[in-house]
């Protein structure tokens, strides 16, 4: 696997070595020793999966305090635009984001450390999205930032009128009003 640093410290795009032949393909999706050698020790404790249709935007979500989560995400079917926003006030890249396309074709993975909001927009007819997390979901600690906050400068590639999101995500605060990380 190739671990590519992004413009924000701690956020990585991971490209696996894919072996194709007439039967199909094979690749290692995650290997603990390899991951630790490039990124560090992350104790993933749970795998999650979601299925969404074109235009669905999930995010920008995070959990606060002791329930903060690191995530390793990828797409099993379809194509999404995945975004991580730095919410660490003490960071030189506070408020900045990294955006990467993940698909069943490119098989990229995206590592997002604790201290970031995360979200994705489905670009294909349907997408199956999977992710490892290093902490349990805690409803009392969930938080978010509005996906279309102009202060974030995220250029989503579809008409905002065509974005499908939850009522909860429509009510998320702007970055300036959000509960952030120190």
3D architecture notes:
The chain has 182 residues and is mainly β. It has helices at residues 32-38, 167-170; strands spanning 2-5, 12-15, 19-21, 24-26, 46-53, 57-63, 71-77, 79-86, 97-103, 109-112, 116-122, 126-133, 142-144. The strands form three sheets. Strands 1-2-10-7-12-5 form a six-stranded antiparallel sheet, with no helix packed on it. A five-stranded antiparallel sheet has the order 9-8-11-6-13, with no helix packed on it. A two-stranded antiparallel ribbon has the order 3-4. The longest helix is centred in the first third of the chain and has 7 residues, at 32-38. The relative contact order is 0.25.
End-to-end C-alpha gap: 32 Å
- What Rg is obtained from the alpha carbons, in whole angstroms? 16 Å
Quote the beta fraction: 35-45%
Largest sheet: 6 strands, antiparallel
- The structural class is mainly beta
Low-confidence runs (pLDDT<50, min 5 residues)?
none
Write down the overall geometry.
globular
Count of individual helical segments: 2
Mean pLDDT: 96
Helix fraction, binned, reads: under 10%
Strand order of the largest sheet: 1-2-10-7-12-5
Number of E strands: 13
Order of helices and strands: EEEEHEEEEEEEEEH
């Amino acid at each position: 696997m190739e671990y590519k640093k992004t413009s924000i410290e701690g956020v990585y795009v991971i490209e696996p070595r894919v072996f194709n032949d007439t039967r199909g393909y094979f690749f290692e999706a995650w290997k603990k020793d390899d991951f630790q050698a490039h990124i560090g020790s992350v104790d993933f404790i749970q795998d999650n999966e979601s299925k969404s249709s074109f235009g669905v935007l999930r995010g920008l979500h995070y959990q606060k305090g002791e329930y903060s989560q690191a995530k390793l995400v990828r797409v099993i079917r379809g194509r999404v635009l995945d975004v991580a926003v730095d919410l660490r006030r003490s960071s030189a890249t506070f408020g900045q984001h990294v955006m990467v396309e993940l698909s069943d074709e490119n098989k990229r993975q995206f590592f997002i450390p604790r201290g970031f909001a995360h979200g994705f927009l489905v670009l294909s007819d349907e997408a199956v999205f999977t992710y490892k997390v290093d902490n349990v979901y805690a409803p009392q600690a969930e938080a978010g930032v509005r996906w279309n906050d102009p202060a974030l400068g995220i250029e989503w590639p579809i008409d905002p009128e065509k974005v499908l999101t939850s009522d909860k995500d429509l009510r998320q605060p702007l970055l300036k009003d959000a509960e952030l990380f120190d």
